[in-house]
Every structure is written in C-alpha cells, then in structure tokens.
Amino acid sequence: MLKKGMDRRSQNMVEEIKSDYKASADLGLKRCMQCGLCTSNCPAAKHSNYDPREMVKMVLDDDQEIKENPDIWNCFYCYTCQSNCPVNNSACQVNQILRETILLEGGNNERIVEFLSYGYSYMDFGVGAIPSDFFDALVKDFGDHYIQLKINLEDIREELGLVDYNLKGESLDEIRNILIESGFKKRLETFQKQGES
C-alpha cells in the first residue's frame, strides 16, 4: 500500500516498497550488497527454488518480472534473512509488500486461495493454523511423528504446563470482531470468490 498521494506509475519498486506502511523505517533495501547471506540461511531457499537475494536484486533493478515469478510465494516469513543481513535489509518484508502489491493488482489470486484456511482459522480459533491443504505434504516430510503430534498436541501442551492456545469465549469474540471491523473477513471472502472464478 502506498502512502497517501503517491502515484504508483511515477516511481520504481524500491520506492514503492520503502514507502509502504509495513516497511521498517530503517529497512536497508537500498544498502543491499548482494552478499547472499539471506539466501544461505533461508529455509525456503533450501527446499525450493526461492532465492531471496535474487528477489531483492530484481526489485533493485526494477525488474517487473519478479511479480510473475511463482517462487516468491515459497517464502513463509520466518525472518531468518533479516536476522542475518549485515545492512539491516529484510527480504522477508520486501517479499510481503511485493506479494500484497501483486494481489491488490489482481494477480496470482490462485496463490492466496492456498492460504485462506490459515486466515479463516483466526476467525474460528483466534490463532493461525497450518492450512489443511498442507497436511499431506507435512506427513510426507515428517512421517508418523507429525500425525502423532497433531493427535496428542493438547496432551503434550498440558504436560509442558502450557494452556490451550485456542482462544475461547469473550477473547475469541473480541478477535472475531476486530477481524470483521478491520475488513479482514471481507478480504478473505473476496479472495475466496476470486479463487473460485
């Protein structure tokens, strides 16, 4: 999202990203020296073709083709890149802003559908949950251990002295009201309709 009064056509991607309200005031995007530390420690880069260094380079080069690259959707915002960057850049923040821009421009709506169940879990439980569509992949990656973890999670949390992380009652109602009033629920429904068309 651009700051008030800014014209998307009159600036490049770097300025669009730096002026986005979600960008940290000290985001070191323009200081990126392409050292590759972001990619060397990125779990998404390790398990897919996502390359945060290359994504940042394309943004710095104002290469609009990055918006068509399906690999940018493999970042899952762990912020490892940011914690390793010597110039305080955050490929993660850049990615978030870039992806939101793509969605607001009407592109890649099919990608967001994969994550709708994550958004709806906030409405149902007050917390995010791994999308059910990913269950088979997680079982494949982690085997029976993952299934046992899912089955026994409440007992494991109780043994560790942890309370149920799902919100209930008044707390859940408050979260739901915030999500409705902020337009979050309506946005989920909009993406759901776009994904179905």
Question: How would you concisely characterize the structure shown here?
Answer:
This protein has 197 residues and is mostly helical.
Characterize the structure shown.
This protein has 197 residues and is mainly α. The chain has 2 domains: 8-106, Fumarate Reductase Iron-sulfur Protein, Chain B, domain 2, CATH 1.10.1060; 111-196, no CATH class. The protein is built from 12 helices and no strands. Helix 8 crosses helix 11 (169-181) and helix 8 (116-125) packs antiparallel against helix 12. The radius of gyration is 19 Å and the shape is globular.
The termini sit apart by 25 Å
Round the mean pLDDT to the nearest integer and report it. 86
Quaternary class: single chain
Q: So, CATH architecture of the largest domain? A: Orthogonal Bundle
Largest sheet: none
Tally of structural domains: 2
How much helicity do the residues have?
55-70%
Give the helix tally: 12
Give the SSE order as H and E letters: HHHHHHHHHHHH
The Rg value, from CA coordinates, equals 19 Å
The CATH class name of the largest domain reads Mainly Alpha
Strand content: under 5%
Low-confidence stretches: 1-10
Could you tell me the number of beta strands?
0
Principal-axis shape equals: globular
CATH topology of the largest domain: Fumarate Reductase Iron-sulfur Protein, Chain B, domain 2
Structural class: mainly alpha
